[in-house]
Amino acid sequence: MIGSMKVGLLVFCIALSACGGGGDAPSTFQPETGTTPEARPPTTQQPSQPDIAVRILPSVTAADVERYLDHNTQNVFDPHEHDPFSAWPDAPIIRIWHDASPESRGAVIQAVAALNAALPHKWHITVGPDFHGGPEYEGDNRYTKTAPFGSIVIDMNVPVRIMPEAAGEAFFQGAVEIGIEQAQITIREDQSGEIRHHVIVHEILHALGFRHIPPNDFHPDSVMAYGYGGDTPERNIPRIDMAAVRTVYGVIGGGAISHTRMDVEDFGAWDSQVVRIADSNGGYGVDYGNGLAVPWIALHGDTSNGAPSRSATWRGHLVGMTPNGQEVDGDAAIRVNVASMSGTASFTDIEHHGTDRPWHGGDLAYTIQVTGATYHDSSGELAGRFMGYDHDRTAGTIDRADLAAAFGASR
Description:
Elements: E1 5-11, H1 14-19, E2 52-58, H2 62-73, E3 93-96, H3 102-116, E4 126-127, E5 136-137, E6 143-144, E7 151-158, E8 168-175, E9 179-188, H4 193-207, H5 239-252, E10 273-279, E11 284-289, E12 292-297, E13 312-321, E14 327-337, E15 342-352, E16 364-371, E17 374-377, E18 382-387, E19 393-399, E20 404-410
């Protein structure tokens, strides 16, 4: 029956907003070498050519994903019963509430970019125009906004008095035979930094149809676990969550999934290993497995606050993977004009790794907009972040149909 499916989820536990990101880090996205960089004064020295490491790592298994999704179909009232999984029939549009700060807006864009790395391009989430609808209060402890069909509205400024015990909430609704049609997310105004990133990712995953995963039950590193305390670097998402998102939207295809139990037979061929190309310090790279190239950067909590205070150029390097798993690398230059809070991201001499053969003509260029300590291009392909002493370093990702890449640079 149209409109009969309506699910409300109280989400993101108090433990996460209180713990400050402690606990064991997920092994798949943690760099294998290197430590948290110490603050250092700006330098104008040209970065040296990095050592590019190619490694083979174990993949999340199909059995892991099967069990993860099994939790997502358990009946709320009877865990022995299962309900059909509901997903979006088409890629949703994010609408940010118009009074969000530049830092909050940048945090949403970064979270969307990280999630898009797990999605096929036809399912990429876009950030649309600001949302200007009015607030709705339900008693004294609920604060929601009605989302237009096909969109997820995110309010980043919910007062603590309205949500004293939850860092965020998500609600979605739609038709049983169609899937999710609209969703609302509310984030408490006092969230910041890496915790805010995890709250936003957690709530968007709820809005995409995913439920909580029990703690210490096979997936302690899932951002959907109750009491998640992993210190996954800020721009990354635990790989089990990414594998589940890819399976639901990239393999099964989204929409109203009719069967209540998904098993490995639904997933098709599954790789047991992941190929990783990264700089030798583990600061940025790309993982490739199961036909999906996932770019990532490792911030180690070493992020800057606010926008750069002076115009500058950051120079460094890029590594990437093509859709068929071929490694590429090249040079990177990020230029910012603080007068307009805009700039360019230029990538040159991009070649197939270990050869002199150019990739795609050898060059890529983007116009970027700086939002707080983050920046992005208008297409949603590129997202980056400033780090370290006086914004002296930066790193980011590029996610295109023909390339998944990550880059790092210094001033």
